[in-house]
Design brief:
about 220 residues, mainly alpha, Arc Repressor Mutant, subunit A, Tetracycline Repressor, domain 2, 2 domains, about 70% helix, about 0% strand, elongated
């Protein structure tokens, strides 16, 4: 695939050579190679966040990374390929941020509040990339799957939490925990999208408290 960016000295760059493809498929073998690949990924994320996906060119990424286009193609075969890897890193980082050990001996409303804080704090630093993944997902099936993967991770965790509360007699036993996790997850996700990606101003404490109250009341927590 040809790059979206320009080429040095008027030379047309048509993509990776056979040797570049072999090195790329094998992955960097040295610590220097791995670090160079990481530098390109860091630079790519910065450029994507500043320029957006459509307006970013390979030449923008290599300039930000301080490498030649040939070096770029030793690791990635296109702008789409490097975006996919950056997006995957973001999703993995957010999933790690959402992970926590279940604590049973805690007020149920406080348990929900802490879950809301974790989601907000995991979304905040990754908001631009999450928004771009959502945008690119409208025309790229792989990005759509990645966005759903992140959403599904939150839904699965939330459904497990609701089941535990039902088992403990805290939440309404008649609710479908998966469907409630889907609906309430959409509420939390869209609120953070409006807040951090589209720039709608909210008071942080008010958002967390409102999400906590809505979630607790929706699943039937008494005195919520």
């Amino acid at each position: 695939m040809s790059p979206r960016g320009g080429s040095p000295a008027g030379r047309v760059v048509t993509g990776a050579s056979a040797s570049q493809r072999e090195r790329r498929d094998a992955g960097p073998l040295t610590s220097k190679g791995r670090e160079r690949r990481s530098e390109i990924l860091r630079a790519a994320r910065k450029v994507f966040e500043e320029r957006g996906f459509l307006d970013t060119r390979v030449s923008d990424i290599v300039t930000a990374a301080g490498v030649a286009q040939g070096t770029f193609y030793s690791y990635f075969d296109s702008k789409e390929a490097v975006f996919t890897e950056v997006a995957q890193q973001v999703v993995e980082t957010m999933m790690e941020g959402l992970h926590t050990e279940f604590v049973r001996d805690i007020d149920p409303v406080e348990r929900i509040r802490r879950a809301m804080v974790r989601f907000v704090e995991a979304f905040r630093p990754n908001a631009v990339m999450i928004g771009l993944i959502e945008q690119v997902g409208t025309f790229t099936p792989e990005m759509r799957r990645l966005r759903l993967q992140l959403r599904q991770s939150f839904v699965d965790r939330s459904a497990r939490g609701i089941r535990r509360m039902q088992a403990d007699g805290i939440a309404d036993p008649g609710l479908d925990p998966v469907m409630m996790a889907e609906i309430l997850g959409a509420m939390v996700d869209q609120t953070c999208y409006l807040w951090f990606f589209l720039g709608k101003e909210f008071d942080s404490q008010a958002v967390v408290e409102s999400l906590t109250t809505a979630w607790a009341r929706a699943i039937g927590v008494r005195d919520a």
